[in-house]
Amino acid sequence: MAEPPAKDGLGTPNILKKLKAEREQHSYKDLLTKWGIPINESEVNIAKHLISKIFEDMAKNVSVQYAGKAQDVGLAYDPSSELERATYALFKLGAVLVPLNPSFNFNQVASALSHLEASHLIISTEVNLPRKDPRSNIPLLQELVPDLQSAKLQSTISSLKQIILVQNDAGRVDTSALKCITPYTSIYSELPQDVKALPDQGLSPTDVVNIQFTSGTTSMPKAACLSHRSILNNGVQIGDRMLLTPKDIVCCPPPLFHCFGCILGYMATATHGSTIVFPTESFNAVATLKAVQEEKCTALYGVPTMFIEELDLIADGVVPYEGFQYLRTGIAAGSSVPSELMKKLHKTLNLTELTICYGMTETSPVSTMTATDDPIEKRLNTVGKLLPHVEAKVVNPLDYDQILPLGERGELAVSGYHVMKEYWGAPEKTAAVMVPDSEGKIWMHTGDEASMSADGYITITGRIKDLIIRGGENIHPLEVENCLLAHPSVSNVSVLGVPDERYGEAVAAFVVTHAEGEGKVTPAEIKSWVRDKLSHHLVREAFSGTYGDGHGACMGLEGGWWAAGQDEDKTRTPARQEEIDDNTEKTMMMMMMMMMMMKRKTRKKKSSRTIRLCCHAPWGNQRMKRQR
């Protein structure tokens, strides 16, 4: 078990005090001239006043409108300057920020608000989703508030006192009849005379400041309660390990309703004076790469699927291979990062100091992280070492009291400042994952299989539930995925277990090839590749499949092929396909995901609204570009 370091230096009182101290270390003139804006000293003083007071002003106005300390405020809209202001205003007020996925439908929004008994909802008039036209939120509001024309808000959610509407539709949505909805512009002003001092809210480091949903279910959502202390210190330590400075420009395409954008993005950059760039309101690989080029970004964030799509665009010539020389670091996280993908990112995008983060929403979120100067084999094959003030142990998943020896695989459990306080309103679910040891120390059980080396590096080998048990032997999907991704014709892959009458489970692989590889790689070649690189038992049942043409069994996997551990002599008939699909719901879900990925590559690009928000921490200059 890894021992925690000394506890001195941990625990800035609250987010606002940290940001105030950070702000005072930087030159406002430097921040404002960073983007080439001509200013004089008087303008610097005005800007300094506005930037210092902007969040206090908004927090005061929100407070007047009933939000207060310990009250929950849901935010359901895309990255924008309004979102940034609202976030820090709520932090200052002491209200609990609850970011919601903008794509949520009424049932999901209503479930979240009801579960938390939220008092306020801040929402935009439109939602911009990937590869879709903007979606109006007015129908959702009509379900939340049946009589929008009433002077008094009466919602189907009994706790909801106020809805604040951000107008982001460029005049496409008529809001004139929404009498009981509060316009965002009415609670925010940049005029110095409108600013009123906000009384000290008596914030404590242990106060819950952020609630993150970890489940997409609408009936019993899990809402992780995170404190000032947990998310602030996690952001500081993440930025420290990346070696972030005020000179860094971080491109952050992951969403802000997730810890990746909110903490690895906002908190890490804000606590180091770095610039953060949000390429678009929803993920767009082309816009992300162009943002890196145009803004001369030094860091790039993403999950594996984002990076894969970006690399494919460069390989296919959709985005020119230029302008990436300023990149040095970044974060890859969100799911297992295959070593072959890491190698491609090092080579193609110059991310030679790319770091790997491992964690979960319940741990604010990062527990382990590689360093920029870790040996390459450590950055390729491990998730690094523990962050300061974090402990970890590898235990027998069937007996939590049994700590396993170094190098042996078991379930990873972590303990420290970063562990959530609880799942909101779910004591049984909390108790199932936050388990005290014999000394009373609380351990968060991650559900991930891992091993720990003698020098402190942790390797994640898969989810405990995802292990494929074939004839009593454990097979790790990530090991097979790494093997397949090393094939020069393979772009993406996912491996899972499917039911097998003889062995209990068999290995199934869903493979997407590069566009230039279509028709050039066969199932037999892939089978041989796995046999040569790994083991015979992984390919004892022959892979069968056909190349995708957008029809039939391949479900539109254009440029790819579907392969599963089935007997070679079985014909791919509609009846046989139905039998395969019925094997497991996960199989169907994976095929749908791969289909969407391939359609993403071939769909004709349409003009869309693109917003790039560049904000130098919460006090810096902002620049927004809108293209139509």
Q: What's the short story on this structure?
A:
By secondary structure, the chain is an alpha/beta fold. The protein has three domains: 40-203, Rossmann fold (3-Layer(aba) Sandwich); 229-463, 3-Layer(aba) Sandwich (Rossmann fold), CATH 3.40.50.12780; 467-600, ANL, C-terminal domain (GMP Synthetase, Chain A, domain 3).
Strand pairing plus helix content: what structural class? alpha/beta
CATH superfamily of the largest domain: ANL, N-terminal domain
Strand content: 15-25%
- Name the CATH architecture of the largest domain: 3-Layer(aba) Sandwich
User: What is the mean predicted local confidence, pLDDT?
Assistant: 76
Strand order of the largest sheet: 16-15-14-13-12-10-11-29-30
Tell me the CATH topology of the largest domain: Rossmann fold
Q: Compute the gyration radius: what is it?
A: 25 Å
The CATH class assignment of the largest domain is: Alpha Beta
The residue fraction in helices comes out at 25-40%
Largest sheet: 9 strands, mixed
